[in-house]
Design a protein that fits this description.
Radius of gyration: 22 Å
Number of domains: 2
Helix content: 40-55%
Strand content: 15-25%
CATH class of the largest domain: Alpha Beta
Largest sheet: 5 strands, mixed
Number of strands: 9
Strand order of the largest sheet: 2-4-5-9-8
CATH topology of the largest domain: Heat Shock Protein 90
């Protein structure tokens, strides 16, 4: 096992894998993508916009560069667990530590992908694809349970019928409400953004519930509608706007459960707005919380 990690570290010591080298590459890339004068065309804004854009590009590149080392760590830990005949046996305690490291690596990978999606959304980049409601919901659920209970994730993947999926989710305190016909219906929109929105809302609901979470999918003439409801302590009306601010947290003096949404709900709001959608919150202290998202169909045909 020590030999394996030694080889893994050697990969980072190779030219081009040094953080200092990466920063030079990023600087050169940014420098080459923006005129030396800092003047950009009229579609790219004026005043402080060129400088802000340079900073955003640097940040996006740094975030993107995290994907490679994270993938190496993911692959390395997975190999140690699944290829013990090659790298040597691990004890039960060691496997628990490795599994915890793997879960947190996957969390970090998800955060990196979310940050990149927010960056693309900020720049007005849309990736339109065909998808069914079933594939979208299942993907969001798999990404959530991959981090907390891999066995549930595998069970979700194996469910070929809606009834079987409902039963599997019910065992975990999650009720899925959707019409059978709508479940198989195909839509045309930015599925990556919708999955990210749904995953964030479901993750929050599962975290702050007392016992149950309800996911409902519906459609009207104009929108595809997702609603996520939990039976937790709820959110006081005075905080309904603040929870959509970056890094907002309820203080420890609040009588309800402390909710630390960080960038989650702020990011959800950005993605919803960029798809010309709407986000609603129904909640009060002691009454649970219900988030409802409407994604327009007219812009996705």
């Amino acid at each position: 096992m020590n030999l394996f990690f030694s080889k893994l570290l050697d990969r980072f010591r190779k030219p081009g894998n040094n953080p200092a080298d990466s920063s030079l590459t990023i600087e050169e890339t940014v420098k080459g993508s923006i005129p030396e004068s800092g003047v950009m065309n009229k579609d790219q804004g004026n005043g402080r916009e060129p400088l802000m854009r340079r900073k955003r590009i640097k940040l996006d590149l740094l975030i993107h560069d995290l994907k490679v080392p994270l993938a190496v760590i993911d692959a390395g830990i997975t190999a140690l667990i699944k290829k013990q005949e090659k790298y040597g046996p691990v004890t039960e305690k060691q496997e628990k530590v490795l599994m915890r490291a793997l879960r947190n690596t996957k969390v970090t990978q998800m955060l990196v992908n979310d940050a990149l999606e927010l960056g693309r959304s900020r720049e007005g980049i849309v990736n339109i694809t065909n998808f069914t409601v079933s594939s979208l919901v299942e993907q969001a659920l798999v990404e959530i349970f991959d981090l907390v209970d891999a066995s549930v994730s595998e069970k979700i993947k194996s469910c070929s019928r809606l009834r079987a999926l409902r039963e599997a989710l019910d065992e975990k305190g999650l009720t899925l409400l959707v019409d059978d016909k709508l479940w198989r219906q195909e839509f045309y929109m930015d599925s990556g953004k919708v999955i990210q929105i749904l995953r964030n809302l479901l993750s929050n609901a599962l975290k702050y519930r007392k016992s149950r979470v309800e996911l409902e999918v519906d459609k009207n003439d104009e929108c595809l509608v997702f609603s996520v409801k939990d039976d937790g302590e709820g959110i006081p009306a005075t905080h309904h706007k603040k929870i959509f601010e970056s890094y907002f947290q309820m203080s420890a003096t609040d009588s309800c459960t402390i909710r630390g949404h960080g960038l989650g709900l702020a990011g959800v709001m950005v993605l919803v707005e960029d798809m010309n959608g709407k986000l609603y919150l129904e909640s009060d202290e002691g009454m649970g919380a219900k988030f409802c998202v409407e994604v327009p169909l007219k812009n996705n045909k």
